[in-house]
Protein: Phosphatidate cytidylyltransferase
Amino acid sequence: MNDSSWGAPPQAGYWGPSDGGPVQGAAPAGPAYDAQYAQQTRPMPIVPDVPEHGGDQDDDRGAARVSGPLFQTPPAQPYAAVPQNPEPMPDVSQPAQSQPPPPKKTAGRDLGAAIGVGVGLGAVIIVSLFVVKAVFVGVVAVAVVVGLWELTKRLDERKGIKAPLVPLAIGGAAMVVAGYARGAEGAWVTMALTALAVLVWRMTEPPEGYLKDVTAGLFAAFYVPFLATFVTMMLMADDGAKRVLTFLLLTVVSDTGAYAVGWRFGRTKLAPRISPGKTREGLLGAVGFTMAAGALCMQFLIDDGAWWQGLLIGLAVAVSATLGDLGESMIKRDLGIKDMGTLLPGHGGIMDRLDSLLPTAPVVWLLLVIFVGSG
Structure:
């Protein structure tokens, strides 16, 4: 039977050859009628009887049975063996177990190594500061050179910026010494000569990238050695060692107070896009601790100092140290790194320790000059 005959109505009055008489309302029947219409119609195909499923002719039933693997009945699967000791069903009457407690806050660094390195650095600074001032100047110069090396190396690795390290290192060390020997005038002159050396040194290489290389070099010269000269300029005063010690103590107290209060009570982010770990509560802790430390230092360490002056200095240090930390965090985020180096276990690099100190140095130097003079 072709596709066109599926569902078509039968010819009126035709049900195959008939030996019977005519049917009411139907066409005449008989041999003549049968012979006439036999030429105009096709006989229905003879469909053989379909044997029952499972007989010998299952695979030869043709159109009478749809065959193939998709239409075969899968064999019955045996019943799975029932375990002898099945696990008991959970008791739904018992309350669900409580969720595990949230993980405790961690510092994110090796605190043991960080404390050990911090104590060691502090001992070197204190001994050099109160024994021979020239040795302390040398310590600052070495820190500046290492910091410049870290900064220029990261700029080259992450941005392809090749700031000239040789003139920066030589000029930076000379800048620190000039600040101690000649004060602000010596620092400014050495800064200008260092900038000129950077411009000339870069001329020995192809001009491609000259502008970005020298711009990064000038930024590095100002950011690291020039700001560090204010530390050695404090040392020029008669109580210079105590001034430098006050500067260092207040910066450390600011960082420690911000960390301690922020870690324990911090809830509101201070600058989440720059440094997600800093909170406003931590900043308030830094301000409170640093103001108290500033009042004590000005009252008992600085000649002719007053406690109220220390409150103002402490407030200024807390703000400048926080801004310095955020400033370097901005640089590291732009470079896509966490630390500037790996020289100091638990701290990162030298620049990761100078971030708060560098911008705070000119602030403390200026306020001390205003309050108690430069001598």
Residues 239-375 form one domain. The CA atoms of residues 249 and 293 lie 8 Å apart. The chain is about 55% helix and 0% strand.
